[in-house]
């Protein structure tokens, strides 16, 4: 059942190109237009929406954080992202024109379910992004956009995360299409890239051996930090979460711009710091900023593990370890930059003798508070 892999997690990491392709299947037509038949919420309601609120837990929350960048950029609808466990006990401001997106692999997470009930009671429309057919969260939502990752068995979420991203991108692009916002060359280029991104994920998977070797060499470490900017920031959070749950290591993700506001005090000799570097093209301001951040932490002794696009030469002098990922449009980069972090955490867990598929104290589906 593990298809020749030692762990379900390894199998599920390897299945990501297919999971991504399956989630795209039938949703982009030949001319680059999107059809999301399952989104039963009438286009008129989507056109009227004046606010989007994303609720989720754990890895799904990280997908939501990334979705915010895409939604606001492509649709110009203000978007908030909140942990379901916080949202459900707050008094949020929602109305008939609020669209709530509940993201959940299992469709059974108690906090997310309670948060969506809380939202519907106040008249908001709820759309679920879910991987499990017929589970409670889609059943209680106004509409559902299924991710087609197939069953995810390992407690640590991998392929479900990538497909949650794909579903959120599709949804954001669909909202843009329905509302007629920014429906121009940029969007067409993104849709084209998205349609073939599974192949890029495959290419990343083919080059992971040095990442595994690096992970094994760090098995004795106590702490690993992760830095990113823009969509790379939630990717850093996700890399840290994977390491916590699998390797039981102290791992934290930071927005690189926050370094000087505290985290830089943690930097000491030979501390591994993973840095997710944005594309050097287009958003060069961000890229320059992160190169300075890498210089700053390295000058203080950090061992830098740099994840950067192919052809990005500016980072080379400051990278103790360099992991290459294919060039993608900025907003889509998490689909490729997350993969090395998953492999890294899985290998570290194995090297530390941990149970990869069933980490201690965790359950696949959190149906209690
Ligand atoms: O089934 P859900 O997507 O609602 O689950 C949410 C979290 O419990 C889940 O993503 C958790 O954080 C994973 N173990 C992360 O790998």
UniProtKB/TrEMBL annotation:
The EC number(s) this enzyme carries: 2.6.1.16
GO molecular function, one term: glutamine-fructose-6-phosphate transaminase (isomerizing) activity
Boundaries of every SIS domain copy: 41-181, 214-359
Active site positions, chain numbering: 364
Keywords from the named record: Aminotransferase, Cytoplasm, Glutamine amidotransferase, Repeat, Transferase
Top class in the EC scheme: transferase
A GO cellular component annotation in the UniProt record: cytosol
Source organism, top-level taxon: Bacteria
Protein's cellular compartments: Cytoplasm
Gene Ontology biological-process annotations: carbohydrate metabolic process; fructose 6-phosphate metabolic process; protein N-linked glycosylation; UDP-N-acetylglucosamine metabolic process
Main location per the UniProt record: cytoplasm
Catalytic activity of the protein: D-fructose 6-phosphate + L-glutamine = D-glucosamine 6-phosphate + L-glutamate
Function: Catalyzes the first step in hexosamine metabolism, converting fructose-6P into glucosamine-6P using glutamine as a nitrogen source.
Subunit relationships: Homodimer.
Protein name in the entry: Glutamine--fructose-6-phosphate aminotransferase [isomerizing]
Organism, as annotated: Streptomyces venezuelae (strain ATCC 10712 / CBS 650.69 / DSM 40230 / JCM 4526 / NBRC 13096 / PD 04745)
């Amino acid at each position: 059942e593990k298809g020749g892999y030692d762990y379900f997690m390894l199998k599920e990491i390897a299945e990501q190109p297919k999971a991504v392709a399956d989630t795209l299947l039938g949703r982009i037509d030949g001319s680059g237009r999107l059809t999301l038949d399952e989104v039963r919420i009438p286009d008129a309601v989507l056109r009227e929406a004046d606010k989007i609120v994303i609720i989720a837990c754990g890895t799904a929350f990280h997908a939501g954080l990334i979705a915010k960048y895409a939604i606001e950029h492509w649709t110009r609808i203000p978007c908030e992202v909140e942990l379901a466990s916080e949202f459900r006990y707050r008094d949020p401001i929602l109305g008939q024109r609020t669209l709530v997106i509940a993201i959940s692999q299992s469709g059974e997470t108690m906090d997310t379910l309670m948060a969506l009930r809380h939202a519907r009671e106040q008249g908001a429309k709820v759309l679920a992004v879910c991987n499990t057919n017929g589970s409670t969260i889609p059943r209680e939502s106004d509409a559902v956009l299924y991710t087609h990752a197939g069953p995810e068995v390992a407690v640590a979420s991998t392929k479900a995360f990538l497909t949650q991203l794909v579903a959120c991108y599709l949804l954001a692009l669909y909202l843009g299409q329905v509302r007629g916002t920014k429906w121009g060359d940029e969007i067409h280029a993104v849709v084209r890239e998205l349609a073939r991104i599974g192949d890029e994920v495959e290419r990343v998977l083919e080059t992971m051996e040095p990442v595994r070797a690096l992970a094994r060499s760090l098995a004795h470490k106590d702490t690993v930090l992760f830095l990113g900017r823009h969509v790379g920031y939630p990717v850093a959070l996700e890399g840290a979460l994977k390491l916590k749950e699998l390797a039981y290591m102290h791992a934290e993700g930071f927005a690189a711009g926050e370094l000087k506001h505290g985290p830089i005090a943690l930097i000491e000799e030979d501390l591994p710091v993973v840095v997710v570097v944005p594309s050097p093209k287009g958003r060069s301001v961000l890229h320059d900023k992160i190169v300075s951040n890498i210089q700053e932490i390295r000058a203080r002794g950090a061992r830098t593990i740099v994840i950067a696009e192919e052809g990005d030469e500016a980072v080379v002098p400051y990278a103790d370890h360099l992991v290459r990922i294919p060039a993608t449009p900025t907003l889509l980069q998490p689909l490729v930059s997350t993969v090395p972090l998953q492999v890294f955490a899985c290998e570290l867990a194995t090297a530390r003798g941990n149970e990869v598929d069933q980490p201690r104290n965790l359950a696949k589906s959190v149906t209690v508070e």
